[in-house]
Write a structure and sequence with these properties.
Radius of gyration: 22 Å
Shape: globular
Strand content: 15-25%
């Protein structure tokens, strides 16, 4: 137990464990109070530390901005630092985006994007549109409302009495597509399911569709099959549904592009961004909207009905600006693309272990799925906690991964998400792979021993 902490699933979850205390970080590494070094291959749990730890130039920017002004009476004033950062966000987004708004957490950003979509339709006189379609086994934030929109069964269960249960469709999970379908047929089946769901729910009731370009921690870095998002976008346009991309984890270079959806040649209507946009140096997230979405607000001179205490905070904008400087100056996004392609090739060496079912990813958002059998893809029982076991062993060996489960059906399935800082080099990638190999070897040995023990008892 930690004396004064409400231990949660996100912060020191194991009440029986003594957690190492981190003293400082530098680059891709963090160091505990005993001087032990860990390669942070999770980037601050889930792809936050895109530019690495210990950037004193950002500490200087925070000091300078706080010395001037840390929070504005935003109902009465604007500032240059806020205005310049919003301009920069719009320029960073695809062509056709015109306005942005910052908040603090990913949940706030995604919920704001959904609210923006609802108000867009209402300003156009379309008051019947309120439903949001998303996909099972995806995560879009931890407020009760966003858990309802999202499809992560493990996180939804406690709050099921509070959920309205918006419609959900199947995730684009190519590794587990039906054996009788090739990839093109699989994509067509997913698109048919999407359109059928719209028709059954009533197109006039659907406000938006939301998706992560690469399904992140909920499934362990699952990229879409070819032409999937192009088909989704076409259907959204056919029925007047806004397409929201949840780029909280995939934005700001994580996948080797400005935004994850840029990899697939599709331009959404609204982008929700967060995590890496501040590099973890300040709580910062944003909504970026296309001209199509913002025009009704302009035409009717109606403000967006979104309100958070730290919306358009000058400190956050100052940090965001400096992070953008670093991304450009050091070609961080280019490095993510190059190192990501190299990393995926290196990770394929893990197929030598029979419990590695799939290696996947985009850029430096990578995943490894763990199975009992490579041929049948059968998952391990939940009770075995295989991904947690691998994660614990990796930490002992000095590498921090992000273990997950539920990738198969929301409950079954083990995976590891690997999302190191985007400034990582090849030698450090090899360090991750070497530790993974050691951990997989040890876990396989323990599985075989436990199986033999069980068989001995039974006989």
């Amino acid at each position: 137990m930690i004396k004064s902490l409400i231990q949660s699933m996100a912060v020191c979850p194991d009440m029986n464990k003594v957690y190492p205390k981190i003293d400082y970080g530098k680059g891709v590494y963090v160091y505990d109070q005993n001087g032990k070094k860990y390669l942070d291959a999770s980037s601050g749990s889930s792809a936050v530390s895109n530019i690495g730890h210990g950037r004193t130039e950002i500490a200087d920017v925070i000091h300078q901005q706080v010395s001037k002004i840390s929070v504005l009476p935003t109902h009465a004033f604007n500032s240059d630092v806020v205005e310049s950062y919003l301009d920069r966000l719009v320029s960073f987004a695809p062509a056709g985006f015109s306005k942005a708004w910052t908040v603090m957490s990913g949940t706030e950003a995604v919920e704001s994007a959904v609210k923006l979509a609802l108000q867009f339709h209402q300003l156009r006189g379309d008051f019947s549109r309120y439903k949001v379609i998303s996909r099972w086994n995806t995560y879009h934030g931890n407020s009760v409302f966003m858990l309802d929109v999202g499809g992560m069964k493990i996180r939804r269960e406690l709050y099921k009495q509070w959920l309205n249960n918006f419609p959900h469709i199947s995730p684009a999970y190519n590794y587990r597509r039906p054996e009788e379908l090739n990839e093109d047929q699989f994509v067509q089946s997913l698109l048919t399911e999407f359109e059928t769901t719209i028709v059954e729910e009533g197109p006039e009731s659907i406000a938006a569709f939301i998706a992560e370009p690469v399904i992140a921690s909920a499934m362990g870095a699952v990229p879409p099959p070819a032409n999937y998002f192009a088909g989704i976008s076409k259907i959204c346009k056919k029925y007047g549904i806004l397409f929201i991309t949840d780029e909280i984890l995939t934005g700001f270079g994580r996948t080797g592009k400005n935004f994850g959806m840029d990899n697939y040649g599709v331009v959404p209507d609204i982008i929700a961004a967060g995590k890496g946009m501040s590099g973890g140096y300040f709580p910062l997230s944003a909504v970026i909207a296309s001209s199509y979405v913002t025009q009704p607000f302009i035409d009717t001179k109606t403000p967006f009905l979104g309100g958070y205490t730290f919306a358009c905070n000058p400190v956050g904008c100052a940090v965001g600006n400096k992070v953008m400087d670093i991304l450009e100056r050091e070609d961080v996004i280019g490095n993510a693309k190059r190192m990501g392609a190299l990393f995926l090739e290196k990770l394929k060496a893990l197929y030598e272990f029979e419990i590695v079912g799939d290696v996947r990813g985009e850029g430096l958002l990578c995943g490894v799925e763990i199975v009992q059998n490579q041929s049948t893809k059968e998952p391990f029982p939940v009770s075995m906690g295989i991904s947690k076991m691998l994660g614990e062993k990796a930490i002992q060996k000095g590498v921090v991964l992000y273990p997950g489960r539920g990738s198969v059906d929301g409950l079954l399935g083990n995976h590891l998400q690997i999302s190191p800082p985007l400034v990582i080099n090849e030698e450090q990638l090899d360090e991750i792979v070497d530790v993974l190999k050691q951990c997989l070897k040890e876990v396989m040995s323990e599985i075989k021993k436990s199986t033999l023990s069980y068989e001995t008892i039974e006989s």
